[in-house]
Amino acid sequence: MKRTFAIAALCLATACGGAGGSTTSVSTSSSGGAAPIPIADLPQVAVSAAPSQTFSGMLNGVRSGAGAGALTYDSRLGAAANRHANDMAANNFFSHTGSDGSTVGQRVTDAGYQWNLVGENIARGQVDEQAVLDAWMNSAGHRANNLDPRFEDFALAKANSPRGPYWVLVLARER
Asked: Domain limits of the chain?
């Protein structure tokens, strides 16, 4: 079955290096030009195992208000989101493309989820789940992902770093 990608990037002024409000993904290399830490060797940097019930309620609340069905948390998507949040935090970059060249679709497949639709929102710096959801809802591309009625499952991961938290929201529908 043909795979369809629905991917959007969140670039805030702090992530994009300016106040332009760009909606393309941006990669910032780590200092010193060091090689990225391989995915298998990533330290576990305070990644949340699952979104709180509060986040699930907030996300499903905005979906309900837009006529979209509720999403269900999926631990396989959680593994993919955790992998990417960890990668960005440990390797000091901000992009939908992993340090190993992986895409959201590859990370989700690697986690054992057989998808036919997948999307990803990323963010850096928001202090809590409400702030990150507000940021995504105030960005047209991220809002479209959050409200897309075709998605059925989701996961949210947060990885702390000295540069602030990295957030990854994966939305998908299985084949």
From this structure: 70-174
Give me the pLDDT at residue 54, please. 86
| CATH 3.40.33.10 for domain 70-174 | yes
Task: Report pLDDT for 115.
Answer: 98
The residues pairing with 121 across neighbouring beta strands, listed in sequence order, are: 169
Q: CA 161, CA 91: separation in Å to the nearest integer?
A: 10
Residue 75 neighbours by CB under 8 Å, 6+ apart: 50, 155
For the stretch 48-85, pLDDT in tens is 555 677 899 999 999 999 999 999 999 999 999 999 99
DSSP track, 39-66: GGG----SB-SS--HHHHHHHHHHHHHT
DSSP line for the chain: ---EEEE-----HHHHTSSS---S----PPGGGPPPPPGGG----SB-SS--HHHHHHHHHHHHHTTPPPPEE-HHHHHHHHHHHHHHHHHT---SS-TTS--HHHHHHHTT--EEEEEEEEEES-SSHHHHHHHHHTSHHHHHHHH-TT--EEEEEEE--TT--EEEEEEEEE-
The pLDDT tens digits for 105-116 are 999 999 999 999
